[in-house]
Write a structure and sequence with these properties.
The complex is a heterodimer.
Chain A: H1 2-23, H2 30-38, H3 52-60, H4 73-84, E1 102-106, H5 116-120, E2 126-127, E3 135-136, E4 156-160, H6 176-181
Antiparallel strand pairs in A: 1-4, 2-3
Chain B: E1 25-27, E2 33-37, E3 47-48, E4 55-56, E5 61-64, E6 73-74, E7 79-88, E8 96-104, H1 124-133, H2 146-150, E9 161-166, H3 175-182, H4 184-198, E10 202-208, H5 212-225, E11 230-235, H6 244-252, E12 267-271, H7 272-283, E13 290-296, E14 304-309, H8 314-320, E15 328-333, E16 340-342, E17 355-360, H9 378-382, H10 389-397, H11 401-406, H12 417-421, H13 428-483, H14 486-507
Parallel strand pairs in B: 1-14, 9-10, 9-12, 10-11, 13-17
Antiparallel strand pairs in B: 2-8, 3-5, 4-7, 5-6, 7-8, 13-14, 15-16, 15-17
Helix pairs in contact in B: 3-5, 4-5, 4-7, 10-13
Classes of the chains: A mainly alpha, B alpha/beta.
Chain lengths: 182, 508
């Protein structure tokens, strides 16, 4: 008797689990999304992948290491290590070095309107038409530098972002002394 | 009246009020130059209405509000607009920002004002408009446009209590105290206007119990006015009892929830200096062009309480106070607890400036060597917002800003109580200021990266679509060729050219 009760119970639970697997199925790969959210979205390709999402996919698949993103820097590596439960490691020098974010600026007098930079820009931040001057939408430029190599007249330079009052930061107090004594 | 208390605070902070509290308000002379930073309030910067070379009069609007959260700016004396360009602004960054500069002509000619002595006849929205057009912002230091605070028509909760903040808890500052002593009757009239606007049942004017003279002069004014809704009360002198949320808690026992404003619990709280400005704007029709500023500290020869035209350079105020002393070490705007250091005295005072403190070496919080945190917990018991400063300190120090945010970093009012009690002299408030600003930048970058992600994905999608369309077109072409044998196609072309040739021949 108890045998049948168990059979029925197991069958019922099995159906319930089967239904839940369909009903609450997670679309996409949540791990890739989480990794992608940490990556800086510069889309620069310095990690040897064609953009941040492909790199996130590669990390999730175990095909890439977490220290290949120079724009994300140490903080990005620490966040990835935290998410994935692995030890943080220094940035891989082969991929580049961490530096302040810059924006591309086109020298509009020199630009010949060849459209090569527009094709190279991963976030469509360059505006222009054939044989007409091109310009960079500063607010949308990620500073990936991918537009620089294709330019045949070398009219693109990387400039530092001007600090606005709204984004001004207080100076961090010096903690070196406290550290030395502790 | 029953009073409550708030958590923590500093009951025995050295007040340093004696240096200036007995000095009657004097009107500062018209300066040669007035400079108005366009963004001297919370919200959007104002938009200039004048051009270089224009003649302006006192009280004339020289810049208009842009958007809802903004405030217009008015000239404080007559003269000529000499410059509209970047100028050093009173901000801890030491940045310059767009400003209008006026060379005064000394005549002090005024525009025509429209007084409304019979304010009872006006509706609340009309009065809110008057306040907005007068460029009035919170004069306690926050510079939030007052009209927005008073526009409570759309709020779900009815305003029950109006609180008038005369609790000037920051050391050294006595401008509100002097204002209450000398112009109490006008402030009471301002309170009546506010009660009429808000439909509040009661108004409580709160002052600290360290100035009994002020309290009696207020009582006198209330008695002669005889409005039952207005009450004055003395509250214990505990820094920072003048903080908006702390004062509300002291007077009503209610706590303003994190992330909410007092209006959400039926309270509006306004600084007494602002009330005076509202009275001037409604009854006399005068926009906000001057305010009371305490100039004090061991660094000036003769401290003063001055009625200053907004836009006056700090150097001009120092001249009124007979110049700097030898001890002058640091120029601070605001008080010693929450003020910030300025790099130069050729910076104009703005609407939010309540005090210029020229501090000597020992008046500035001494920069003792910070030592390791010993986790004594004194900071937590002193924090008026019941935060855990020591935890916040670890996270701020190690740049774990998200964790600091989870511990309600944004609720920190930067009062500096934790700094004062810390036996290790850790500049905690400075750490929190840093962490708050860094968090703001981090959120901004997050937002930018989200935009970049969207744009990258949209581009990928477009490229894939283009590729698919091209493949589809070439497939169609190939299929068409397959269906129609090449021979047929060629024959058709040949016959077409033949008929064409024939027709040409026929025409010949």
């Amino acid at each position: 008797m108890s045998f049948f009760i168990l059979i029925i119970l197991f069958a019922a639970l099995g159906i319930l689990l089967g239904y839940a697997a369909i009903r609450f199925k997670v679309e996409g790969d949540p791990l890739v999304d989480k990794i992608d959210a940490i990556l800086p979205q510069t889309q620069c390709g310095q990690c040897n992948f064609p953009g941040c999402r492909p790199y996130a996919q590669a990390i999730a698949d175990g095909e890439a290491d977490i220290n290949q993103c120079p724009p994300g820097g140490e903080a990005g590596i620490a966040a990835l290590a935290d998410l994935l439960g692995v030890e943080p490691k220094p940035l891989n020098e082969d991929n580049g070095v961490e530096k302040a974010t810059l924006v591309a600026v086109i020298d509009e007098n020199t630009c010949i309107g060849c459209k090569l930079c527009i094709q190279a820009c991963p976030v469509d931040a360059i505006l222009g038409a054939p044989k007409h001057m091109h310009t960079v939408i500063e607010a949308e430029c990620t500073g990936c530098e991918l537009c620089i190599p294709p330019c045949p007249v070398e009219c693109i330079t990387m400039e530092p972002v001007t600090k606005t009052l709204a984004l001004w930061e207080w100076e961090k107090p010096d903690t070196s002394q406290a550290k030395a004594k502790s | 009246m029953k009073l409550w208390s708030f958590h923590g605070g500093l009951p025995s902070l050295a007040e340093h009020k004696n240096e200036s509290v007995n000095l009657p308000i004097e009107v500062a002379p018209i300066p040669k130059t007035l400079t108005y930073p366009l963004g001297q309030h919370i919200g959007n910067a104002a938009k200039p209405l004048v051009q270089v070379g224009d003649k302006v009069l006192r009280g004339q609007k020289i810049a208009a509000a842009q958007g809802v959260v903004s405030a217009p700016i008015h000239a404080a004396s007559s003269g000529t607009v000499s410059k509209i360009a970047d100028h050093l602004i009173p901000h801890p960054s030491g940045f310059s920002a767009p400003s209008i500069t006026i060379e005064t002509d000394g005549l002090d000619a005024e525009t025509d004002y429209t007084p409304h002595a019979d304010f009872q006849q006006l509706t609340a929205p009309q009065l809110v408009d008057i306040v907005r057009e007068a460029g009035i912002v919170g004069l306690g230091g926050a510079a939030f446009p007052t009209a927005i605070k008073l526009n409570t028509q759309s709020k779900a909760v009815d305003i029950d209590t109006l609180i008038l903040n005369g609790a000037e808890c920051e050391p050294y500052i006595s401008c509100d105290d002097r204002l209450l002593k000398e112009r109490a009757s006008r402030i009471i009239e301002g309170i009546e206007i506010l009660l009429h606007m808000l439909g509040a049942k009661r108004a409580i004017l709160a002052v600290e119990d360290n100035s009994p003279d002020t309290f009696s002069s207020i009582q006198e004014a209330i008695n002669s006015n005889n409005n039952q809704a207005i009450n004055a009360t003395q509250i214990p002198t505990i820094y920072p009892t003048g903080g908006e949320k702390q004062l509300i808690q002291t007077l009503t026992g209610k706590e303003v929830p994190s992330g909410k404003i007092p209006a959400d619990i039926g309270i509006v709280s306004i600084n007494v200096g602002t009330v005076y400005a509202i009275q001037q704007a409604v009854i006399e029709g005068k926009p906000l062009t001057s305010r009371i500023i305490t100039v004090t500290g061991e660094g000036v020869n003769k401290p003063h309480n001055l009625e200053v035209r907004i836009g006056t350079y700090i150097s001009a105020l120092i001249d009124v106070c007979h110049g700097y002393t030898k001890q002058a070490e640091r120029l601070v705007m605001g008080g010693p607890m929450m003020g910030f250091a300025l790099s130069s005295d050729s910076i104009p005072v703005v609407k939010a400036t309540n005090c210029i403190l020229v501090a000597s070496q020992h008046e500035v919080i001494t920069e003792k060597q910070a030592m390791p945190c010993i986790r004594c917990g004194l900071c937590a018991s002193a924090c008026p917002v019941s935060l855990s400063p020591q935890q916040l300190y670890w996270f701020s120090r190690s740049d774990q800003l998200d964790k600091a945010a989870q511990l309600n970093l944004s609720d920190c009012i930067e009062c500096g109580c934790c700094d004062v009690v810390c036996p290790s002299h850790i500049p905690l408030a400075q750490h929190f200021r840093y962490a708050k600003s860094a968090l703001k930048v981090q959120n901004h970058e997050k937002q930018l990266s989200n935009i970049a992600r969207e744009r990258f994905e949209a581009r990928e999608e477009r490229l894939a679509r283009d590729k698919a369309e091209r493949a589809e077109r070439s497939r169609k072409k190939k299929a068409a060729l397959k269906n129609k044998p090449a021979k047929e196609e060629i024959d058709a072309a040949v016959s077409r050219s033949k008929t064409k040739k024939n027709s040409i021949h026929n025409e010949d």
